Nucleoside diphosphate kinase (Acidocella aquatica), 140 residues
Amino acid sequence: MAIERTLSIIKPDATRRNLTGKINDKFETAGLSIIATRRLQLTKAQAEAFYAVHSHRPFFGDLVSFMISGPVVAQVLEGENAIMQNRDIMGATDPKKADAGTIRADFAESIEANSVHGSDSPEAAAQEISFFFAGIDITA
Ligand code: RTP
Ligand code: MG
């Protein structure tokens, strides 16, 4: 299996509850390495640009408001099959449907305040990593 990189965001509901360490423990225990990390407060324009793919969805305005409601932690995770492995570790979008032991089952508050984002394809991973990080910021 290929070594991949994926973009993870620990969302404001999780930073607010001091869950960064517990979430990172799940990544590292599963064998994903955190090779870049950055805590920041997104602006409205940045959140709209990051989630532009959802701009026509009914929840877009609420999603942007939520994503700027507090700091986020953007990270690059690296490991075997990292993109899909991270999606497995995160669990389903709706925490009520997420498998036991996943981040969203353990920590998410709702379908919107669901603690983490993860890239969903190699193309999205490349684009989302470059949204937050320059090459010099990433140390494998
Ligand atoms: P993400 O992009 O954040 O990793 O999450 P995902 O792939 O599991 O879910 P996606 O369909 O891409 O939705 C992006 C984020 O929008 C919020 N959402 N709210 N109110 C709603 O019905 C609703 N549906 C989605 C969630 O924060 C979701 O993660
Ligand atoms: Mg998504």
Observations:
- Strands lie at 3-10, 33-40, 72-80, 116-118.
- The two ends are 18 Å apart (CA to CA).
- The chain has seven helices and four strands.
- Residues 122-132 form the longest helix (11 residues).
